[in-house]
Design goal:
globular, 0% strand, disordered N terminus, mainly alpha
Length: 497
């Protein structure tokens, strides 16, 4: 109805009014998960992900809204369609909107735009940056309205992802009066969904089945609101979440049905990221049923899909599930490699709590680890999960400490621990690295630490040897002669004005 109305009435609108109207409707369509509709509405101003919006002739305040809308849609569509670099593009567009808002002294819209950038960081697994931006934005968003409610939900997402479940629960319950006043259906649905996920995590952590029942009640309220909002893909996510609760309660048949329903909706909506997420849940149910070979195949497909889309944090989730299935199939070497990839994926985007979860799972699922790998995994799991509020995770860490006790040989450096965790199982790579280390050490000794002479002895270049030392054998840097920087006058470079 609104789309038709825009087509009929736009001749009576000024360019600025039409641009604002298009942004408003596009974001409403986003809340209904109508990807094509949102793109079509914005088409005269913005032609899709990777394109710069056309704001020529528009008032700065209106141009700001166009950049903000384009950035929000880029982040959403990029996540949905697994477009690499989409979140970075979205951040750049939203930053331009902030520049416009600041020139107009619109502090509220600056704060709102910052919450959207924070959401891009969250999608990339960069939880620390997301938390800082959201807390700063909330200091400015003092009005008890929809904008503040949405920012609080984004912060609750961050705390959930960081396994700070009681902090997420505090945010949601302390602000319950605000969410009760909100009439926006999609936001209301997100609130109930977030609250349900928090109850679910606490139920698992504290072994309290009554919290699982509270989670199911909140999921029912979330699905009701998403149905009224006509947001089918969010409704699918709720169905998947219900499937996870049923899995934890051991009700596998019902869990499969809910996840299958969720996946049908995601395929109909062509949301590949959520389809892959639902595949992870299906694989977890299959593991619960002892069907490890089927679970591994499903998790492998999900990990491949998420890797292609650059969804590193979600990819780590899929790899954890695949690794567990492989370990329980009796294939520890492949499982070790998969867990290694999961640690790398999480570590590269700064999702350290997720990397800690993988390291902990590595200890739990594999019994043939060397004492050095076991020590590295425990040490990093302990450090990376230091901020957890989950009693379940703390119990797992305690049990892992017991497994380590017989092989503990003292603390190693964090860099050494990460290197051990990311070194593939087997002797070949280790032996090659040790051989390379010894050759370079001898060359440096013979050349009195002069890199150029050592490089000649080894048949490589100065730059090549320097790179190897910096990246693979930093302990040998002390054996080289100090770098002597020439005065600027020796370089015959043009002066800069």
């Amino acid at each position: 109805m609104k789309l038709a109305s825009l087509k009929l009435d736009r001749s009576h609108l000024t360019p600025n009014a039409e641009a604002l109207h298009r942004c408003e409707i596009a974001l409403e369509l986003k809340d209904q998960a109508d990807y094509l509709g949102a793109l079509e509405i914005m088409r005269p101003l913005w032609r899709g992900v990777g394109q710069r919006p056309d704001t020529e002739g528009l008032h700065p305040g209106v141009a700001a809204e166009v950049f903000l809308c384009s950035g929000i849609l880029t982040g959403w569509i990029g996540s949905r369609d697994q477009i690499k670099e989409a979140q970075e593009i979205a951040k750049n567009l939203i930053t331009e909107s902030i520049n416009y808002f600041e020139s107009e002294c619109d502090t509220k819209r600056v704060a709102e735009a910052r919450t959207e950038i924070a959401h891009c960081y969250w999608r990339d697994g960069e939880l620390h940056e997301a938390r800082i931006m959201l807390l700063e934005a909330l200091e400015r968003l003092t009005t008890q309205g929809l904008t503040r409610a949405r920012a609080l939900l984004k912060l609750a997402d961050v705390e959930q992802s960081a396994a700070r479940y009681y902090e997420a629960l505090r945010l949601l319950t302390d602000n319950s009066s605000l969410f009760n006043k909100v009439t926006h259906l999609a936001t209301k649905g997100s609130y109930h969904n977030e609250l349900a996920m928090t109850f679910e995590q606490i139920a698992e952590s504290e072994k309290r089945d009554e919290y699982f029942q509270r989670a199911l009640t909140e999921y029912k309220a979330a699905e009701h609101n998403f149905t009224l909002a006509r947001n089918h893909i969010f409704r699918a996510s709720v169905k998947n979440n219900v499937g996870v609760v049923l899995l934890k309660l051991g009700r596998f048949k019902e869990a499969h049905k809910h996840v299958a329903d969720a996946r049908r909706i995601s395929l109909r909506c062509k949301d590949r990221t959520r389809s892959a997420q639902f595949d992870i849940t299906q694989a977890e149910i299959l593991i619960g049923e002892g069907k490890f070979q089927q679970a591994e195949a499903v998790a492998y497909k999900a990990a491949l899909s998420l890797e292609k889309g650059g969804q590193r944090c979600l990819e780590a989730d899929a790899l954890i599930t695949q690794g567990i299935a492989l370990a329980r199939m009796g294939n520890p070497e492949r499982a070790h490699c998969v867990f290694q990839r999961a640690i790398k994926a999480a570590h590269e985007v700064g999702a350290l709590n997720k990397a800690g979860e993988v390291a902990l799972t590595l200890i739990e699922e594999l019994n043939n680890l060397s004492s050095k790998t076991l020590q590295a995994a425990y040490q990093q799991a302990r450090d990376w999960l230091a901020g957890t509020q989950s009693q379940w995770v703390l119990r797992r860490l305690s049990e892992a400490a017991g497994k380590l006790a017989t092989s503990l040989r003292g603390e190693m450096s964090s860099d050494e621990a990460i290197t051990v965790l990311l070194t593939k199982p087997g002797d070949l790579q280790t032996k090659l690295s040790e051989y390379e280390h010894e050759l370079i050490k001898q060359a440096l000794e013979q050349s009195n630490g002069i890199i150029t002479h050592a490089a000649d002895l080894l048949g490589t270049t100065y730059q090549g040897l320097s790179y190897i030392l910096e990246t693979r054998h930093r302990d040998l840097l002390k054996a080289r002669t100090p770098i002597r920087r020439r005065p600027r006058s020796q370089f015959n470079l043009p002066s800069h004005k």
